[in-house]
């Protein structure tokens, strides 16, 4: 056995190289095979004895002790445990084929620095070895553990992968569970929010503007909302426990409620208008909707009723109805309601054989009242008339206002006997006439008015409402034509007149289009007998009736509005003629007087139309005289004056026709830009026999002169009339004494003849 030699006794433990031998305890050592021999590490310890001598103790350290220990903890492929001596020689190794030299240069360097440590080495084959060492302080050994990093970590990696997989799995499971819980939570939350919202909506709906009450199946009120209390006046405490009978108005018969319940049971729903009673006792209309609520077994468990107070709506409907069917000024039924009632009356009269009557009432001279005292007074009169009419009739009669001053009274049931019915109608017509003749007090103004009344009877149901209205209107016309303040019945002759007028109207429209209108010219002379002008007079050359005078169609043209195109045509012709005259020396000083209808004058564009015609024809404006009728002007002096003024500024002259027949007031004469007064032929006609007419003529002439107006007398037929007029100082004359209305060529011939022969009309001084 080799042991390191000690030169002096030292108390140091020494070891020798490994040797093989038998186990001291092994009695059968001799029987062991060489391979079975044990390895020992010899150990020597020199120890000083009390007597000063040295004693060396020898020990053998069985390497199996180490190897067994390490092999049990470390698999051969994982690494190696080795025991080195300080000189680096290998004592024992757990691995017989170590991967590399144990006492590697790296270990040597490490040992020099520290007695214990660890480091990593890279082998030539690329493997990495992790080495840990410790130099024992007790034994003269260095223990080195070398591990193949790959091998050592193999298990760890395997376990780590397993652990990662496991953890991942668990994590995934947890995430999955969390997701499921999250989704469930979300769903529950959404449902909770939805439920909350529905509860809020239900609460809001319950506390809506509509009154709501809920009853059980036995009709006991369980709940009411605030609006219910507001509408009915009952608070929750007063209503709960009661039945809806609490609200009953008593206005509906039992059959109404029976039907409601029948429908509720069969359809589980009822809605309709109902009259209820508030706590205050007021009865009011409401719209009620009742819905039956069923339980799981489809039995009615509750009733939910909503009620809306429709008082306001009813009022609005009433208002709309009033506006649609009633005249706002007089509160009388209007045309629409009258026609509905008339239709019913005509139908029922036909069925029952009862005779009824329709009375058309028109106030005479109402327009004058409006124009003189103003529309407010006119309105007061209409309201008063409406009241008087209502007092004259029975309850089932209708008094209506058609508009303006036109009233209608419908008497649906007079008598089965037509004579008796006519008598009753006439009696009522007279009563109305007298009632409306009584004086009026219009806001302090005393006023007197008269009506004209036309009556149409109906019995057989053969005439519809429109026809009856036309008949009554015709009778009214007749009453007016007969001098007003009268009651006239419709007669078939009026119908005939009506038909004639209708066909004349059609023909007149055609006449304008077909050029059947003609103009005649009636000369006007001055004091010296010279023709200085002519009045343009219209004729209609009717294809079958021949030449018609204006009396036959002017009124109709005015009523139908045809006077506008006709008047325009006359003006154009006259202006064209004036332009022609201005080119002929003999005719150049002739003026033409054109009759202007009130409808033309009232046309908003009248002034511009005349100006347009003047400039289009290039007629000299100062030769154009526009004749206006006195009675027409009176209605709107201001308006007429405004339209006349611009024309007068351009030279157009204005004559007042038929003067003396109307108001002949100095006041309005002053306001109008007039040039000439025409004394109406009705006065001239009787001037020699009628002192009254003579006085009028005299006054008119004086008035005209005072106002510095030219005065022309028309209808002069005799020399006596002429002499009288001359005496009074009349300036100009027109009449059969000089000439009838003439065709244009005759007028021109007459004028030229007068020029050449100096054959003036001989006027006695
Ligand atoms: N008995 C008699 N009659 C005489 C005498 N001198 C003239 N007359 C007639 O008296 C009417 C005078 O015309 P007016 O007063 O303007 O009355 C005119 C006028 O108001 C209207 N009229 C005529 N032409 C037109 C027109 O173009 N437009 C308009 N709006 N009205 C017209 O028709 C009315 C009647 O016209 P006419 O039938 O042509 O009747 C004319 C004329 O023929 C006479 O000495 N004795």
TrEMBL record:
Domain PAS, chain residue ranges per copy: 195-254
Domain PAC: from-to ranges: 270-322
A matching Pfam family: PAS_9
Transmembrane segments: 162-183
Domain called EAL: residue spans: 501-755
Domain GGDEF per the UniProt entry, residue ranges: 354-492
Keywords: Membrane, Transmembrane, Transmembrane helix
InterPro entries hit by this protein: Biofilm_reg_signaling, EAL_dom, EAL_sf, GGDEF_dom, Nucleotide_cyclase, PAC, PAS, PAS-assoc_C
Top-rank lineage group of the source organism: Bacteria
Entry-linked CDD domains: EAL (cd01948), GGDEF (cd01949), PAS (cd00130), PDC2_DGC_like (cd12915)
PANTHER family assigned: BIOFILM ARCHITECTURE MAINTENANCE PROTEIN MBAA, DIGUANYLATE CYCLASE DGCP
Protein name as catalogued: Bifunctional diguanylate cyclase/phosphodiesterase
Organism of derivation: Vogesella amnigena
């Amino acid at each position: 056995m080799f042991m390191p030699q000690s030169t002096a006794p030292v108390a140091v433990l020494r070891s020798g190289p490994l040797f093989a031998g038998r186990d001291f305890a092994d009695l059968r050592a001799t029987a062991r095979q060489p391979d079975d021999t044990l390895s020992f590490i010899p150990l020597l310890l020199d120890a000083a004895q009390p007597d000063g001598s040295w004693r060396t103790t020898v020990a053998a350290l069985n390497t199996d002790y180490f190897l067994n220990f390490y092999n049990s903890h470390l698999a051969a492929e994982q690494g190696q445990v080795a025991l080195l001596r300080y000189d680096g020689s290998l004592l024992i190794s757990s691995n017989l084929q170590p991967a590399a030299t144990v006492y590697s240069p790296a270990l040597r360097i490490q040992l020099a620095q520290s007695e214990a440590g660890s480091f990593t080495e890279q082998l030539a084959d690329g493997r990495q070895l992790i080495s840990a060492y410790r130099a024992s302080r007790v034994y003269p050994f260095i223990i080195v553990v070398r591990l193949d990093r790959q091998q050592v970590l193999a298990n760890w990696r395997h376990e780590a992968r397993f652990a990662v997989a496991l953890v991942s799995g668990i994590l995934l499971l947890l995430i999955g569970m969390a997701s499921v819980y999250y989704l469930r939570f979300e769903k529950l939350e959404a449902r909770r929010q939805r439920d909350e919202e529905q509860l809020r909506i239900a609460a809001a709906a319950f506390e809506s503007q509509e009154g709501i009450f809920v009853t059980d199946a036995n009709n006991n009120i369980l709940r009411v909302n605030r609006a219910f209390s507001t509408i009915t006046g009952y608070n929750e405490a007063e209503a709960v426990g009661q039945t809806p009978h609490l609200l009953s108005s008593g206005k509906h018969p039992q059959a109404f409620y029976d039907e409601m319940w029948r429908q509720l049971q069969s359809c589980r729903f009822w809605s309709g208008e109902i009259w209820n009673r508030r706590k205050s006792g007021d009865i009011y209309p409401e719209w009620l909707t009742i819905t039956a609520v069923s339980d799981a077994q489809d039995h009615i468990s509750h009733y939910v009723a909503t009620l809306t107070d429709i008082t306001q709506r009813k009022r609005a409907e009433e208002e709309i109805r009033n506006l649609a069917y009633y005249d706002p000024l007089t509160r009388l039924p209007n045309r629409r309601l009258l026609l509905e009632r008339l239709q019913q009356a005509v139908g029922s009269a036909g069925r029952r054989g009862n005779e009824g009557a329709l009375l058309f009432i028109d106030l005479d001279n109402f327009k004058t009242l409006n124009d003189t005292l103003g529309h407010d007074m006119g309105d007061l009169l209409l309201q008063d008339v409406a009241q008087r009419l209502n007092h004259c009739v029975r309850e089932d009669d209708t008094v209506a206002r058609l508009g303006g001053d036109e009233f209608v009274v419908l008497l649906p049931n007079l008598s089965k006997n037509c004579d008796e019915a006519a008598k009753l109608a006439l009696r009522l017509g007279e009563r109305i006439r007298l009632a409306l003749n009584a004086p009026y007090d219009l806001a302090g103004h005393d006023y007197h008015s008269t009506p004209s009344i036309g009556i149409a009877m109906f019995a057989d149901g053969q005439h519809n409402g429109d026809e009856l209205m036309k008949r009554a209107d015709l009778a009214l016309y007749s009453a007016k034509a007969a001098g007003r303040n009268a009651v006239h019945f419709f007669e078939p002759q009026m119908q005939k007149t009506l038909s004639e007028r209708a066909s004349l109207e059609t023909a007149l429209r055609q006449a304008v289009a077909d050029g059947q209108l003609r103009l005649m010219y009636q000369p006007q002379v001055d004091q010296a007998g010279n023709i200085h002008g002519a009045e343009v007079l219209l004729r209609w050359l009717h294809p079958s009736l021949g030449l018609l005078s204006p009396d036959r169609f002017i009124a109709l043209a005015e009523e139908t509005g045809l006077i506008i195109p006709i008047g325009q045509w006359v003006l154009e012709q006259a202006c064209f003629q004036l332009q022609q005259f201005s080119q002929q020396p003999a005719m150049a000083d002739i003026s033409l007087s054109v009759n202007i209808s009130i409808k033309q004058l009232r046309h908003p564009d009248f002034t511009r139309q005349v100006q347009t015609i003047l400039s289009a024809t290039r007629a000299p404006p100062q030769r154009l005289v526009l004749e206006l009728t006195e009675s027409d002007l009176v209605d709107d002096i201001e308006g007429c004056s405004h339209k006349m003024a611009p024309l007068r500024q351009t030279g157009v002259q204005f004559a007042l026709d038929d003067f003396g027949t109307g108001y002949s007031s100095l006041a309005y004469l002053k306001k109008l830009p007039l040039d000439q007064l025409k004394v109406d032929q009705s006065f001239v006609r009787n001037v020699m026999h009628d002192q009254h007419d003579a006085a009028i003529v005299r006054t008119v002439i004086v008035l005209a002169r005072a106002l510095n107006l030219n005065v022309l007398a028309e209808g002069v037929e005799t020399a006596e009339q002429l002499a009288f007029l001359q005496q009074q100082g009349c300036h100009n004359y027109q009449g059969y004494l000089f000439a009838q209305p003439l065709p244009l060529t005759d007028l021109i011939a007459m004028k030229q003849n007068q020029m050449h022969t100096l054959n003036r009309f001989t006027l006695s001084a």
